Structure formats: C-alpha cells, structure tokens
TrEMBL record:
InterPro entries: 3'-5'_exonuclease_dom, Exo_C, HRDC-like_sf, HRDC_dom, HRDC_dom_sf, RNase_D-like, RNaseH-like_sf, RNaseH_sf. Signal peptide: none annotated. SUPFAM superfamilies: HRDC-like, Ribonuclease H-like. Transmembrane segments: none annotated. The keyword Hydrolase applies. This is 3'-5' exonuclease. One of its GO terms (biological process) is nucleobase-containing compound metabolic process. GO terms for molecular function: 3'-5' exonuclease activity; nucleic acid binding; nucleotide binding. It comes from Cellulomonas terrae. CDD domains: RNaseD_exo (cd06142).
Amino acid sequence: MPSGWKYLSASAACTEASASSLTVDLMRPEVTTGAPAEGPVPPPTPDPDVEADLPQITMLTEPADGIPAVVETPEALAAVVAAFGAGTGPVAVDAERASGYRYGQRTYLVQLRREGAGTALIDPIAVPDLSSLSEALVGVEWVLHAASQDLPGLAEQGLRPSRVFDTELGARLLGLDRVGLAAVVADALGLGLAKEHSAVDWSTRPLPSEWLRYAALDVEVLVELREVLAERLAVAGKAEWAAQEFEAVRTAPVPPPRVEPWRRVSGLHAIRDARRLAVVRELWLTRDQNARTRDISPGRVLPDHAIVAAAQALPRSVPELTALPAFAGKGTRRRAALWQAAVDRGLATPDADLPSVRGPKSDAPPPPRAWAEKDPAAAARLVAAREVVVALSATHEVPAENLLQPDLLRRLCWTPPATLDVEGISGFLRAGGARPWQIGLVAQPLADAFEALPRD
C-alpha cells in the first residue's frame, strides 16, 4: 500500500461501528437479522472457513495529503493549473452533481489528482471557466469512472480530455460482476471506499468537510486502479478493445433533444386516451418551466405519480385537484392553482392538437414482443442474433450490452442490409457506431446464424 494513506481495516471498522448498526463486508452478501425484543444486538459469530476465503478489505478513511481547500478564486485556480501542468502521469478526474435536487445535470464539484500535483477540489460555480486547466493537460490521459456520466458536465466548464481511461468500462470488459467504483477498487486494490455521500446535494454551500473528504477519496486511488485494470486487460488480450471503447466515450456526440420528452413520465402506460395525454403534456410542460425557473429537480416540484393521477381524475377545480391523495403535500397544494390551470389547458386542447396515443413517429424498431406478428422473419433473426451475442458474451466474459448495443442489434434484425453476409453485416454495424473489435467478434457468427435460418 502506498505510504501516506490513512486507513481502517475491515475488522477495526466493525469494532468501531455502532452497536445498533450492522457493518457489512464490501465483498460479502448483506446479512439481516431480526431485532430482539430488548438489549443490544449480539455480534455474529465469525466462520473461520468463510473468513479465510474472503479478500481482506482496508477502508480508506483519509486522503494521503489531507483535505485540500476548495478552489474558489481565479488566483487559486491559476495555482492548480500550474501544479497540474507540471505534474506527471495520468490525472484522476471526478465530478459531483446534484441529481434529484437541482434542475439539469450541472457539475457542482470537480476533483482531480495527479502525481506531483496532489489533489484539487474545484468549485465550478465560483470559477466556471476551467478551460485553462484543460489546456494545461493537453495530451495527458484522464482517468474517470463511468466517464459518460461526467464528460458532458465537464465540457460545460471547458474541460475536454485528449485521452481517456474509463475504469468502469475496463471493469465491464474484464467481466467483473460489480462495476461501481467501490466494488472495483475493492476487487483490484483490496481497498474500501465509503459511498454514503454519493447522492447528497452537492450544490450545498459551503460543502461540509465530510463531503469534501469523500470527494477527495474518490480520486485518491483512481490512477492506481487504472494501472491494475490496464495490466489485467493486457493479459486478457482486451487492451485494444478497451482503447476503442474509451475513445468512443471520449468522442461521443451530444445526443439530440428528445422528441416529446413528457412521454417519459413514469406510469404513462396507465393513460390510454389522447385527452388525458394532453393533460399529462400540459402538466409536464408547466412543471418543467417552474423547475427550470426555480432550479429545482422537476420531481421535487411535482412527482410523476401526481401528474398521472390528475390525468386519470381530470379534476375541474382546485378543490377537486387537492382532494386527490397525490396532491396532499404542502408544496403541491401551494401551487394547486398552477397545476389546475395546466389541467384546464389540457382539457381545452383542440382535437387537432391532441397528442398521438401511439407516440411520435420514429425509425426505431417496434417492441420485440410485436415482431412475431408484424414480421416473423425479423423475429426469427432476432432470436438467432440474441443467441449468438449471449454465447459470445459468455465465451469472452463481456456483458452482452458491451459486446453490441441492443438497439443496434434490433435494428440489424428489423431493417437488415441488402445482404446478410459478413460484409453486409459489418458495414451495417460500422455505420451504427460499432467498434472494430465488436464487428470482428460478431459479424461472422451472425452471418452464419442468419444463413442457417429457414428460407421462405
């Protein structure tokens, strides 16, 4: 273990845990016990045979260099830029958002660590333009976990990497069962990371010291983790696969705005007529505008289940609306007139402007459950293709969804190329964004499977 790390062994962690709580080994299935009628809960009796088979996990409790001061001024940022530009090796990068608290996916804290520079915690609200840091790191590999989640928000602050190593993607390609950061760190390094602050409101100011400790620890061992995973990938013959995946994540385009985003309301399947869908649409649009103005997560302004409840009941007045159990909360009732006005607009929508019950037109294939009736040949291709991908997934110990995107596989089977030979399949997959390593693995087996299908 590198010197300077402060840690707590798993056994010591259990000793220090509260008597009223249950400490669970990071690599062991959760154990629950019924609480006795009175008295303290006795500790479980350890099984020596089981304990011998479990990896020893050492909990990281403090960053090696302590908790750095949060960078909040241009002068402090300039010092960080100079330090990280002079550092060596890859740079570990992480970002924290306020999902579920604020509107959108804005970044509220950026964490970095590099050999020779230490750790930096940057407040992108106080210093929003971080392009100078990005320029100082041109050509440097960035190590992130689940990079696709962080890169869009980092780009908004002017942070764009030249190269990426994604430890979550690396873990997936290695076939690890659990690919969250804490689980991968435990598997690869034998270290434990606490995750109790992962879902807090990172827009809070000032940030509590415990949260800052958590944030610093998230980048503490990312570079060390990268080294272990890179070696494993090389041994498994998957280093080139990983390189192609990392580059695909780094260069992924920003997805276009979703058509009719209100259709993502949870529980919408319960609404089956156009008039009620119009009410859902108006409530969603009103909620979205209110949430955007107040910078609050839409679900905190008005829950999805309340939108569905109003669309089902079609209240004609504020008292009728607030009589619904879904509108019993104080915040919801406080804006009851706003929500009722949205319901009224939905009820008054002209027939010609009512939303389609079937949804917007799309070039996406229909749900697979409908294929057997709509296109039996396509259904047969999909069954055969899925069998191929599942078999290859098991052989190469790569999740099926990482071997080939499920949507691309469905499109191949629903609207196939003119020829379903290796060349035709390869061209189709390449145009759909599949990487060379994926095409090299699946094209021939898919062609063989399609060739074996009965002809009409």
